[in-house]
Amino acid sequence: MRVDGRKLDELRPIHIETQYIKHPEGSVLITVGETKVICSASIEDRVPPFLRNQGKGWITAEYSMLPRATEQRNIRESSKGKVTGRTMEIQRLIGRALRSVIDLDKIGERTIWIDCDVIQADGGTRTASITGAFVALVLAVEKYMAEGKINKFPIKDYLAAISVGVDPKLGEILDLNYIEDSSANVDMNVIMTGSGQFVELQGTGEEATFSREQLNQLLDLAEKGVNELFHEQRAVLGEFADKIKVLSKEEV
Amino acid sequence: MRVDGRKLDELRPIHIETQYIKHPEGSVLITVGETKVICSASIEDRVPPFLRNQGKGWITAEYSMLPRATEQRNIRESSKGKVTGRTMEIQRLIGRALRSVIDLDKIGERTIWIDCDVIQADGGTRTASITGAFVALVLAVEKYMAEGKINKFPIKDYLAAISVGVDPKLGEILDLNYIEDSSANVDMNVIMTGSGQFVELQGTGEEATFSREQLNQLLDLAEKGVNELFHEQRAVLGEFADKIKVLSKEEV
Amino acid sequence: MRVDGRKLDELRPIHIETQYIKHPEGSVLITVGETKVICSASIEDRVPPFLRNQGKGWITAEYSMLPRATEQRNIRESSKGKVTGRTMEIQRLIGRALRSVIDLDKIGERTIWIDCDVIQADGGTRTASITGAFVALVLAVEKYMAEGKINKFPIKDYLAAISVGVDPKLGEILDLNYIEDSSANVDMNVIMTGSGQFVELQGTGEEATFSREQLNQLLDLAEKGVNELFHEQRAVLGEFADKIKVLSKEEV
Amino acid sequence: MRVDGRKLDELRPIHIETQYIKHPEGSVLITVGETKVICSASIEDRVPPFLRNQGKGWITAEYSMLPRATEQRNIRESSKGKVTGRTMEIQRLIGRALRSVIDLDKIGERTIWIDCDVIQADGGTRTASITGAFVALVLAVEKYMAEGKINKFPIKDYLAAISVGVDPKLGEILDLNYIEDSSANVDMNVIMTGSGQFVELQGTGEEATFSREQLNQLLDLAEKGVNELFHEQRAVLGEFADKIKVLSKEEV
Amino acid sequence: MRVDGRKLDELRPIHIETQYIKHPEGSVLITVGETKVICSASIEDRVPPFLRNQGKGWITAEYSMLPRATEQRNIRESSKGKVTGRTMEIQRLIGRALRSVIDLDKIGERTIWIDCDVIQADGGTRTASITGAFVALVLAVEKYMAEGKINKFPIKDYLAAISVGVDPKLGEILDLNYIEDSSANVDMNVIMTGSGQFVELQGTGEEATFSREQLNQLLDLAEKGVNELFHEQRAVLGEFADKIKVLSKEEV
Amino acid sequence: MRVDGRKLDELRPIHIETQYIKHPEGSVLITVGETKVICSASIEDRVPPFLRNQGKGWITAEYSMLPRATEQRNIRESSKGKVTGRTMEIQRLIGRALRSVIDLDKIGERTIWIDCDVIQADGGTRTASITGAFVALVLAVEKYMAEGKINKFPIKDYLAAISVGVDPKLGEILDLNYIEDSSANVDMNVIMTGSGQFVELQGTGEEATFSREQLNQLLDLAEKGVNELFHEQRAVLGEFADKIKVLSKEEV
User: Fold this and answer.
1) Is the model's pLDDT at E250 over the cut of 70?
2) Which part of the chain is the Exoribonuclease phosphorolytic domain (chains A, B, C, D, E, F) (predicted)?
3) Is some CB atom of chain C closer than 8 A to the CB atom of E74?
4) Element (H, E) at D113
5) What is the DSSP letter of F49?
6) Which of C214, C246, D101, D159 is the most buried (most CB within 10 A)?
7) What residues of chain E lie within 8 A of the CB of C85, using their CB?
8) Taking a C-beta distance cutoff of 8 angstroms, is the pair B230, B160 a contact?
9) Which residues of D are annotated as a binding site for phosphate?
10) CB of D9 within 8 A of CB of D221?
11) Contact at 8 Å (CB) between E177 and E121?
12) pLDDT tens, A76-97?
């Protein structure tokens, strides 16, 4: 039995509250068990220098934690005067992932800023950030379409992320909380599309190793998990849910 | 009439939700109109070097805004690599204010970290931070007393803060929202104790000036406002509310 | 009796030496007791980006101390790689104060840089900086008017600043030196115009509190102090002194 | 045909020159095609604070490129005043990978610093760094064992890394050079042990996606590639090569 | 004729005002023509880590300019967040120079901080800093000897510095002011002891070159210049002047 | 006898390998005894802002050491977040030196970046950098001339640098290695042209002093040393060697 009583292939309860804060074009509060992240999508009417005059847009992501989102208080990165390597890795990952399911030509010369701010952390903050940020992105795009600023729907597919890992006693498990993550031998983050394609795969033995057989079992678990996340995303997107086409494997 | 229909001496609706996030010893989400701040109080069992071996504690505060707490997205201070002057001013102010109503000898060699993170801003974020942080501080202290780590109740008095200002058309007004703050000729933040004493007074003509008569009217408004805030603080503190003694003017 | 033998409402000796250094458009060495500050006003023929093409100017201030201006040597902020919160607060204060008595439309698209460098500190460095910087500003403006670069006299009123405070034994006192400042319960900086209006008021209980009665007595002392400073400013400005109109209370 | 005439599953020529620079305890120059990296292992007789008094050691890695290792000159990170996100990701990856094949208890309270400095880049710098750093690490450990400072051989297994990817025209390919890497749809770095276990897997669709079938083909290619790298590592380690035990899958 | 009417081998007027600011153990305002530098020597009762428990002291120097010490206002290094290369070169030079004429064993485990703050610049600020700092150093040492904290007089010789250069029209000249320095082909700073020994020699063709013959003429001029500086140093040191032994060439 | 058996006026073995890395327009690996530096010259088709639209070019230099180029591992400057004073001094020196022998009008509005990266250090890294960088510069210029991008040969003279010093036992010596440098009383770096002119002279008593007689002997040694370096430079430049005119003393 897992520390919180879940089955090996069971997600924690997911809740996505839309338009959680009023200023961003799109925003959500995503809750995955005890992990809570405010994800917002802000649209700015210009692009970074390397993209100017190409008629296409950009998505960039930033990630942060409140100092006391965690059991022990962390020093703010603004006080340290620099962003840590972990934060950089995560925000680069979020940006890449979202860019894989949007047609940047269709948003014009605009930058969409994704901000993922963890207000309470209990494992899986980066995957929750991606899953929530996708919804905030769709909401922001819908707002700009409703205002006539974007004409063609640019979202190509659903996107969600989940962690899987190898527990030293229980073996392969889905959606690790903080305690499980701390003791896992293997930790893997899997980002997938609604069509069942991989966007990114990051698996580490955390100073241990894993076999190809374990890898296959982990990927099976992850696939199960993201499908449940897509279900939740569709539920909160309501009328917009069906605008996002899920391609069959043949169409990909 | 004010832009949001309030009377000149009327506060915006106040709501304080306690234990909003689970890890800190004390935390609240304070909502003042459309301004929302997560305030947390974290107790660390050591003091900064300048206080070591003196048997007394310290309170220090940090303040930040989510990038899209505001109408326009702000660049994160962690990305800039430095904390702005405005942030420094505010966090120094919050720290000084809270230290004025606690007996630091009674908390032992501990640091209480106050984190005020604005998730949505509509004027008055620094005064909301102080009013909310006071409640988070009391909750944290109570937790440590319940666990037997602090023996004598160290809180000396209630503490709340409010802004007042001079509107170019309406004259003196209480609790300015963002639009009012942007157009005000004079802006004053007043921090007071439950006993009606001043802790801090910061009034600026914002490149204009004000008379002593105006000052007196502003202080009258502020006194009215903080008394309503004390009422709300008492309500959410429940059983702990009466442990905080409010001194009569003679006792001060 | 005060530590240096002054009466409770007595300023320290003031001296303002004009054109103390040769390169700036305006400069003074202001001496207030043992506190000495070089204030210079430098005019640059462009404005910061947020003001471009608006036909008006800007004033910005910087403040620093020599490392050994104080009893104990301080580490340079350039060595630390960042400006402290205290410095930021002070330079923002100086800038705001000077902007309140100048008509920025009349100086054209120019920035006036105010540099206040404390070469010896004995309390009251920020108020001495403001009082001295006002004179340097007038001198710089006069130079540009004499050269025909500015056509309309932009200075609207006199400006001076003084500290007042509550001594634990003596009560309310005017113009605190370093020793008095260190032991004061309440510390207030008051910036006023020649017309008797307030520009800025910053009073702090320094982890203590103060009553409205004390506030009124402190403001009376401050008013007496700034009037003496205006007298000294007029003396050193000589022929230019009367160009600055002091409005009666009715005209404000 | 690939741009450099290789077969789809063909590595570029590998060369590892040992003790390339004289000061480090272990060093190599690894050449993979046109990619050249100086890898050094420096042993310091103390550990970071979080490991003190635990009787075990630590490995940490740093990665950098000479400014003109690349086609376009890059600004030095020392001039920028900060390490980029890409560099941080890579050096964290190198450190984690090496820690997976060493028994840190056996090296005592020591830190082994791995420095990977790319002097010429043509794709695959991070995987070349890991493959070369492993050899430098073994050399450094052997030096300390020869001097009697380390008593038990701490290396648990071989370690090597390779990139695989999906070329838009050719499909799955092994060991991408810079041109191939720039145009690949999918890019995956695979780090494996001599026993055929995975240490780390990082695959990204680079704003595209990939299927599970493609993943399997990529992993087959990677396995072939690392086996050839182990062969080269054994060759240059000479007499030390057999001290490193390669476990059968059953023993893992 | 030189721009200011001096002869080729003529120094500008020198003035050294001792104890110019009150807090440092030793301080001077040195004026060389229009160049003015506040030099202070502060004694701290501890040494940097690399010197601990060796029974000897250290001298370290810092150099800075007020922003408007120059014709054009310079951005403060504290605002830039870093010290420029020019400043670093100068402060390293001042420190090395002063350390050459003091017996660090005789001052005990103390650090003497030399601060050279240029309040007005007209060429030769680094050489004026050294010449003035030497006097401040002697005054600080004398103060500590008078208080019984240092027992043996540690100053081994006089020290002064001067610039020489090659003017494109006039040839070799002594003590260049800012205009001369800007147009000189060769610029050399010479630091010498009272015994006529060189401490440091820094000559640069400033993107031009110079011959050995020119070098010899420049050194002759420099020798003449420093001798006049020693005369001025002796004058202001008064009773302490003769405590500093000037060795004959044989004794060096 | 010197520690490595050389005569007092003997250089260490010199070797210059051209086009050591493939991307830069010019590059060398210079080996001076055990000191090894990769010098590269990169041509960028634009100039810094202060030179725009003047039709001339610029040369700027950067210098760095690999962390383990030295006996003890050094912390990377990118990790420290700033460039040390020593590095700044050296890179400013390299830049100035190279600019003295090139006609910047002839290279057009281009910047030549000189990168000197020390991969192994044993004294004399800055002089080896200059001597090697000169060759890299000539190679880069030749490449641009061959491609028709530069029309007139801009190199005015040969340039090389060497260190000389005073050993406490042996007296004046040429080309100090690390051990000699550490114990020398006087350390001087001399940069000269093929015509026998000085470009830069930096001599320091390293907290000691030196006489004019010693200076003359050091300069004689340096002259001998640079002549041997010019010989080596000519050898590796091959066909280009005679394009660089060496002026007789009369022509300078």
Assistant:
1) no
2) 10-140, 160-225
3) no
4) strand D111-120
5) G
6) D159
7) none
8) yes
9) 86, 124-126
10) yes
11) no
12) 998 888 888 899 999 999 999 9
Tell me the torsion sign for CA atoms F62, F68, F74, F75: positive
- The string of pLDDT tens digits covering residues A105-128 is 999 999 999 999 999 999 999 999
Kindly indicate the confidence band of residue A251, based on its pLDDT and cuts at 50, 70 and 90.
low
Residue numbers of A between 85 and 104 with CB closer than 8 Å to D: 85, 88-89, 91-92, 96, 99-100
pLDDT at A207 over 80: no
pLDDT digits (tens, 9 = 90+) for E11-20: 999 999 999 9
Given CATH 3.30.230.70, say whether it is the number of domain A14-73+85-243.
yes
Nearest Cα residue to F123 out of F189, F43, F24, F217: F189
The count of C-alpha atoms lying within 13 angstroms of the C-alpha of D112, restricted to the half-sphere facing its C-beta, is 37
E135 neighbors E234 (Cβ within 8 angstroms)? no
Could you identify the residue written with the tokens 């979020």? A94
Alpha-carbon span B198 to B164, nearest angstrom: 14
E26: its two tokens = 């030793």
**One-letter amino acid for residue C243 of the chain:** K
* SS3 at position A61: strand
Q: Are B144 and B25 in contact (CB under 8 A)?
A: yes
Query: Using one digit for the tens of pLDDT, what is the confidence trace for F185-215?
Result: 999 999 999 999 999 999 998 778 999 999 9
* Predicted structure pTM score: 0.89
Tokens (6 digits) for B245:
């003694």
Note whether D27 and D21 are within 8 A (CB).
yes
Q: What residue ranges of chain C have pLDDT lower than 50?
A: none
Give the list of residues 6+ apart from residue D131 with CB closer than 8 angstroms, or none: D30, D32, D159, D160, D161, D162, D229, D233
- DSSP annotation of B246 reads P
CB atoms within 10 A of CB F32: 28
CB A36 within 8 A of CB A118: yes
Residues of chain E found within 8 Å of residue F157, distances taken between Cβ atoms: 209
SS percent in chain B: helix, strand, coil, step 5? 35, 30, 40
- Which pLDDT does position F142 carry in this prediction? 96
Q: How many residues does chain A have?
A: 252
Please tell me chain C's helix, strand, coil percentages from 3-state DSSP, rounded to the nearest 5: 35, 30, 40
Nearest beta carbon to residue A83 from set B66, B70, B78: B78
At D57 the pLDDT is 96
For every residue of F63-111, DSSP letters joined together read EEE-TTSSSSPPPPHHHHTS--HHHHHHHHHHHHHHHTTB-GGGG-S-E
The dihedral sign for the CA sequence B141, B144, B145, B150: negative
Restricting to E residues 176-195, those with a Cβ less than 8 Å away from any Cβ of F are: 188, 193, 195
pLDDT in tens, chain B (252 residues): 899 999 999 999 999 999 999 999 999 999 999 999 999 999 999 999 989 999 999 999 999 999 999 999 999 998 888 888 899 999 999 999 999 999 999 999 999 999 999 999 999 999 999 999 999 999 999 999 999 999 999 999 999 999 999 999 999 999 999 999 999 999 999 999 999 999 999 999 877 899 999 999 999 999 999 999 999 999 999 988 988 977 666 666
- Give the pairing type, strands E26-32 and B26-32: unpaired
- Rounded to whole angstroms, the Cα distance separating D241 from D142 reads 11
Decide: helix, strand or coil at residue F19: coil
Nearest CA to CA, how far is E34 from chain F (Å)?
Answer: 28
CA B89 to chain centre: 13
Q: Which amino acid is at D12?
A: R
Mutate one of E204, E246, E247 to test the F interface: name it (highest F CB count within 10 A).
Answer: E204
Q: Do C211 and B201 touch (CB under 8 A)?
A: no
ipTM of predicted complex: 0.93
| CA–CA separation, F99 and A71 (whole Å) | 58
Q: Are residues B134 and B38 in contact, defined by beta-carbon separation less than 8 angstroms?
A: no
C24 at the E interface (CB within 8 A)?
Answer: yes
